[in-house]
Amino acid sequence: MLKEAEKTFSDFLEKKDLKLTSQRRTILRVAFEAEGHFSAEALLSLSKKADSTISKATVYRTLALLKESQILEEQDFGDGKKVYERAQGRKHHDHLICIRCGKIIEFENEPIERLQNAEAQKHRFKIVYHSLKLFGFCNSCG
Q: Which option is the CATH number for 94-136: 3.40.50.800, 3.30.1490.190, 3.40.50.300, 2.60.120.10?
């Protein structure tokens, strides 16, 4: 899957007259291998561990490109902080967010997906992407 993401990113960069540098490749690998959701600061820290010459500016610019190329997806779970997760090579999913402890539960629900598509079709609306986030209390906080 990483090879596919690298190809997608390389093709995307080529269209923008940019190169897949070794630093961009490292940031892509680190982001792609990250578990779950991560902040830009966490990506910076992990990337610097892999290559100490990577700067904050390079990570932030590359993060924007990874988002634009749809390899990563940006999320805001209600606390005003942006986090990222791998989009390419993963099945679409939605999120339950505990507003007390911050726990995030990912789930897939095909009936919800069908309802959203039917509603869009009813309104002659073409969905490009969507994000469903449900906020409440997890079992531990409930």
A: 3.30.1490.190
